[in-house]
């Protein structure tokens, strides 16, 4: 009989899945691996996590209905279809929600899409006059006027079809997906544009659109082969996670999600270039309505909101004794910093909003539900906030039975880049009951 202490395949897989594997399972918390997967890869949403990981977790749990309150580009919903699990996602950024919904249209006819890509290119080739957005960002990102005009002619031909049917939505996403590739401007690790940096390979608009159309069509065929003709039901609602409006009570037996992190990443700015190019907004100032509905995870989204509302609220009572000193310290540190950022107010808002999300989740999940939050901690101005612990306490206060955390990896974060050395991590917050 063997006495080797080698974990079985199942144990090793499980340890990886649950974040306990040696060395950390880095790619599960990032979108990178999804760029190899049909349909998932239609739009690179850097805030996303691994679809394969989410699907494995559903399989491991053996659940039937999964809810993702921060569904982003729709990773959880697509992964749920792959596991024959029903799903609902909610996303408050209208364009991000539209991207996710459009990915769910992969069941449409791929040949019809190919034909319509051809129609778009024929109309674009007529060389009609275009209206160029006046925002300085467009001139900076598209210095080659001829290429810009080509891109805008494709835009106009795509928008001419808008509202017609589901294929028109797929054309819209194919166009959205090529915008950055057609600009020589660099992009940061996240979605931000860096107009002063250039990238080495710039796509030509017509061939990029044609290639995107073909990628979409062949992915639709491949996914049909993998998932079948009648995928599990899934919906992405354009709804605030703090209310989960339109989700039925006790609907889900599991939640798999990743909220915005309390790290000042500006989700309102994520798709500014695309929104301007499409004519949805003129510039920065038009993002204000979006800032009012996004979770308070960035100082830019605080508006005139006053932290007192949160600090005095019973919603924060389980953590207020720990949060208050951090809040006060940040208020003090802020005075000596050039940026003078109100991270104290942001953190109060962040936990207040998340407390509301847990209340809503408690209402929409069955008793005994399983919840996994992919989340990282935070240290604005070097002052540490133990995010997972505080979120866990807020979840229990909302009626869940227990929480625990498994670290997946250490993080080299924006904060670290900004010269504070507080070690940070990212992992799975497990909530049950
Ligand atoms: C970390 S990302 C989730 C990414 C997703 N897991 C994926 O794979 O694409 C967090 C998402 O929460 C969204 N969000 C922010 N505030 C929200 C709110 N109040 N309600 C719903 N979604 C919100 C952001 O727009 C963002 O897309």
Describe the structure.
The protein has 433 residues and is α/β, with parallel strands linked by helices. The protein has helices at 9-17, 51-61, 75-82, 94-103, 110-124, 136-141, 145-160, 166-178, 205-227, 272-277, 288-293, 308-311, 320-335, 343-364, 387-397, 414-417, and strands at 65-68, 86-90, 185-187, 193-198, 234-237, 252-257, 365-376, 402-411, 424-432. The protein has a seven-stranded mixed sheet, with helices on both faces. Strands 3-4 form a two-stranded antiparallel ribbon. Helix 3 (75-82) links the parallel strand 1 (65-68) and strand 2 (86-90). The longest helix is centred in the middle third of the chain and has 23 residues, at 205-227. It is globular. 46% of the residues are buried. Residues 1-9 have low confidence and may be disordered. The chain binds S-adenosylmethionine. S-adenosylmethionine binds at residues 45, 47-49, 70, 72-73, 75, 90-93, 96, 240-242, 258-260, 267, 293-295.
Q: Layout of SSEs?
A:
Blueprint: H1 9-17, H2 51-61, E1 65-68, H3 75-82, E2 86-90, H4 94-103, H5 110-124, H6 136-141, H7 145-160, H8 166-178, E3 185-187, E4 193-198, H9 205-227, E5 234-237, E6 252-257, H10 272-277, H11 288-293, H12 308-311, H13 320-335, H14 343-364, E7 365-376, H15 387-397, E8 402-411, H16 414-417, E9 424-432
Parallel strand pairs: 1-2, 1-6, 2-5, 6-7
Antiparallel strand pairs: 3-4, 7-9, 8-9
This protein binds S-adenosylmethionine.
